Amino acid sequence: KLVSQIKESTKIPVLGHADGICHVYVDKSASLDMAKQIVLDAKLDYPAACNAMETLLVHKDLLQNGGLNELVSDLRSEGVELFGGPRVSALQELSIPATHTFHLEYNSPACTVEIVEDVFAAIEHINQHGSAHTDCVVAEDHKVAEVFLQQVDSAAVFHNASTRFCDGARFGLGAEVGISTSRIHARGPVGVEGLLTTRWILKGSGQIVDGDKGVVYTHKELPIVA
């Protein structure tokens, strides 16, 4: 709240490290085993982190094929407190109480769960209720993944990888000052590059952070795509 208040009330450009309302969208094409691993890691690797999952969105077909039940069961078995959007909280068999808002960063082992029609509904939900921090799609359908990666307006968008990877050290940037979700100003003479900001797109195959156990990160320069 303090960061948001400062950003809203000052005329000075602010590099603000504010809300981290991160989403994981599980598509109907997703590998359920991969989805479970990513969802649990994104929520539980460090629940208070700004890149932890706060809202789980699932394709409507997962209600019919049992995928939603399995995701809910796994989260509950790990002690995660669940709150539902209108569609999920209406399902008596899940017994999930309704959330009072989608714009909520729990910073604890808790999250919101909601059903969406498709990837386009997920994108609309994220762009409306998210904080433009880090959002993930779990899908085997690469067309769905590309639509998500291109249309979700967040600083970092991931395909088949935990939101917990959004981190300065893991990206090879050294000590992290913060994670900006805004488009900050340039200073001095401004060319085209001064008008641009970086948007991070990560494509994985089910990678999770899991406390960085036994992991050594190596980094290499990659071309920037305009």
TrEMBL record:
Pathway: Amino-acid biosynthesis; L-proline biosynthesis; L-glutamate 5-semialdehyde from L-glutamate: step 1/2; Amino-acid biosynthesis; L-proline biosynthesis; L-glutamate 5-semialdehyde from L-glutamate: step 2/2. The gene is P5CS. In the N-terminal section; belongs to the glutamate 5-kinase family. In the C-terminal section; belongs to the gamma-glutamyl phosphate reductase family. InterPro entries: Ald_DH/histidinol_DH, Ald_DH_C, Ald_DH_N. Transmembrane segments: none annotated. It catalyses: L-glutamate + ATP = L-glutamyl 5-phosphate + ADP; L-glutamate 5-semialdehyde + phosphate + NADP(+) = L-glutamyl 5-phosphate + NADPH + H(+). Gene3D superfamilies: Aldehyde Dehydrogenase, Chain A, domain 1, Aldehyde Dehydrogenase, Chain A, domain 2. Keywords: Amino-acid biosynthesis, ATP-binding, Kinase, Multifunctional enzyme, NADP, Nucleotide-binding, Oxidoreductase, Proline biosynthesis, Transferase. GO terms for biological process: amino acid biosynthetic process. It comes from the Eukaryota. This is Delta 1-pyrroline-5-carboxylate synthetase. GO terms for molecular function: ATP binding; glutamate 5-kinase activity; glutamate-5-semialdehyde dehydrogenase activity.
